[in-house]
Amino acid sequence: IAPPAFLADPAPAAVLATLPGARAVGGAVRDALACRPVADVDVAAPFPPGEIAARLTAAGLRVHETGLSHGTVTAVLHGQPVEVTSLRRDLVTDGRHALVEWTTDWREDAARRDFTINALSLSAEGDLWDYFGGLADLEAGRVRFVGDPATRLVEDHLRALRYFRFQARYGRGEPDPAAVAAVRDAVGHLSRLSVERVWMEIKRLLAAPEPSGAVALMQETGVLPAILGPDSLGAAKHLRALAEIGAPADPMLRFDALLTHGTAEAARRLKASNEEVQRLVARYRAGHDILPIQPEIAAGGPDDDALRRLLADQPAERLLDAAWLRQGVNRAWGWQGPDDAAWERFRARIAAMPVPVFPLQGRDAIALGVKPGPEMGRLLAETRRWWLEGGCTADAEACRSRLAELMRDIHGKM
Ligand code: ATP
Ligand code: MG
To answer: Which residues are in the Poly A polymerase head domain (predicted)?
Structure first.
């Protein structure tokens, strides 16, 4: 084959030139052969980790030894990292941890990789090694385990989830029956995986261009209910609808579509970051605001004042999420709602609307003679309510007069 372009990138080229017999492995080789953008380049070399580090350092490369105990070092050149791993062979695996031994046998290293399309290796000269038929599988859109699927899943249950990640990205046509049967049988073991790893895999899967087919297969095999519970029944239907309406390929928006309710709780259970959980909570709130105004959206509304009120209470991004989701769910189940053009117009207006910011702060109230404390909080909140009702159009001056008026009212009554 013609040597793929990534072999000429300075960092991989320097690493391959420094380590005799080293080859690029894994995702970079697979993606280059599939004519897809290559993300990071992994290299494997027939030396023990210490020797790899020593040779790279001697050649003047910056080396991080963070993964040295697992046989991996990271070489960095011009800011581009390359992970370099010793060839290895699995001795014992218990589904969560593996005991490995260094080897110089490329076939053994390929045999411990998960799928045939991930077991390819490529020399600096562009020679390809394909011990398990990965190239043909890549061309046919087949995701196949290296070796016996059931055995490979017992060694590492995470591979059941990785299967769907690669199926989503590379799978075409009928999925490999042996893989599907083995994954189905492994469902009972998924609860033993750490939730952090499950969350990472779900997000990677949902980053694929169109993951609805793989998610349908996850439902059909029982994998999705096993990790997300019974509310995931509409997941694939929802994702397909999101794809049809042209929603962004955003893993978090898609995750939100996997469950009919309780996505924030599910994300929290999977130890998603606070930021991610908060995003789902805010989307849920925005969804509540959008649900009742669908007739207005269908008619080209709501008017600017009402739209500003919505935007004053929550980030525009969450309203957009909620609009995509509502449009997608309506479509998935054939529910009445605004047509696609009306949703499009609604989102365009949200995106174009400057975010209204309440113009007063505590110091404005103090300048008007209000004492800091609960009364100040109440006066500001009351003024903000008035500002919202007026469509967020009152400026600082008008808000100050309103606050002064409210003050006079209170003190007049006393
Ligand atoms: P991506 O583009 O999604 O990063 P990748 O192929 O680089 O895809 P990684 O998870 O980064 O995937 O793993 C790199 C390589 O390491 C894989 O291609 C595969 O050969 C091997 N590998 C990773 N995880 C496993 C696993 N759990 N079991 C067997 N081999 C694995
Ligand atoms: Mg990778």
So the answer is: 23-144
